[in-house]
Amino acid sequence: MTAGAGGGRVTVVIGSAGRRLYLIEWFRDALARLDVDGEVVATEHDPTSASFGFADRGVVMPAYSDAAYAPAMLDLFERARPALFVSVNDYELQLLSEGLADRLRATGCAVAGLSRAAQEQASDKYLMARLLGRAGVAVPRTELGSRWEALVAEDGAAGTQYVVKHRFGSGSSGLRLTDREGLAAAVDEASGSATDIHGRPALRARDAVVVQRRLMGQEFGVDGVFGLGRETGVLRGTLARRKMRMRSGETDKAVTVDPAPFAPVVARLGAALRPAGPVDLDLIRDRDGVLRVIDVNPRFGGGYPFMHVAGADAPTYLLAAALGRRADPALLRYQPGVVGAKYESIRRTGALVERATGGA
Ligand SMILES: Nc1ncnc2c1ncn2[C@@H]1O[C@H](COP(=O)(O)OP(=O)(O)O)[C@@H](O)[C@H]1O
Ligand SMILES: [Mg+2]
């Protein structure tokens, strides 16, 4: 085993892996594949989470909402000097983009994610649709919940179907499918549980919901893998699958497909957002054959495993890039036509720690 860039052991940190143990495993494989001695560290708020004890080392972090979170992250990075940090939590990505990622980068770590301005747009389904539209990427017509009547006035042919969803949501939160007659009620219902960009109950709830024309067609999931550091914003690979079944807002079964038709869409999105690392997109090929983007997540999404089992190896690609090595684009190739299905599993985690609540 050889040492990493700085001569010592190589540390990869994965933020909030939660149930996604495969990411920890595949980054561990990446260390081995690149023949470097190192460890995968999982940062988690909850030490009983499945990933915590599965990593080579688990580090408990304060809640994102806690002022102690950023100093604790900086402290870890100053001590462990990781080469690469990827988070898979949207609220953590939000905090990272607000300045923390740059402070972590100053410790010498490659941090995946978006700039503050780009993150603000990516986590907002309304702003994202507008930005992509301007960047030449096809999107469904999108309006704020408070302006649903404007959408109906524009293309309200009888029989048109609509989608209502949380503007800052994920995992299909607030999702309602309805026709024109049910739209007002669907907006009201989705508003009732809508949150703001930080996950707190939204104040102007009908503006925290978006309404879109419902696209009818096949749905695809795509990962764009972008460079790190000086290569930020440079598209290195496109990984695509057709969704066959969804479960709890995640792709449950999918078949890998040729990335060629998706690459120009991902490249345009990349030019607009300049991401570092992986970006997960949802697209629907509408009845007119146009690929329209409905959702953008600037991280490893729940669809990446379908690409990995078909031969892609984004973790090794990203780790090589983070170590300043020549990252081989062949690592982002895969076999089309591979069907993958997720399954349940369980592991024993840490002991439950009773916290004192004060009083008698
Ligand atoms: N405009 C739309 N037309 C058709 N289906 C949609 C549309 N918007 C969302 N959906 C469906 O709802 C799911 C969740 O919506 P999405 O925009 O991906 O939000 P989330 O952030 O919750 O994943 C999608 O995977 C898709 O199946
Ligand atoms: Mg989605």
From TrEMBL:
Organism field: Georgenia soli
Keywords noted in UniProt: ATP-binding, Nucleotide-binding
All copies of domain ATP-grasp, residue ranges: 129-323
UniProt protein name: Carbamoyl-phosphate synthase large subunit
Keyword ATP-binding (UniProt): yes
Pfam family for this entry, one: PylC-like_N
Domain of life, source organism: Bacteria
GO function terms (MF aspect): ATP binding; metal ion binding
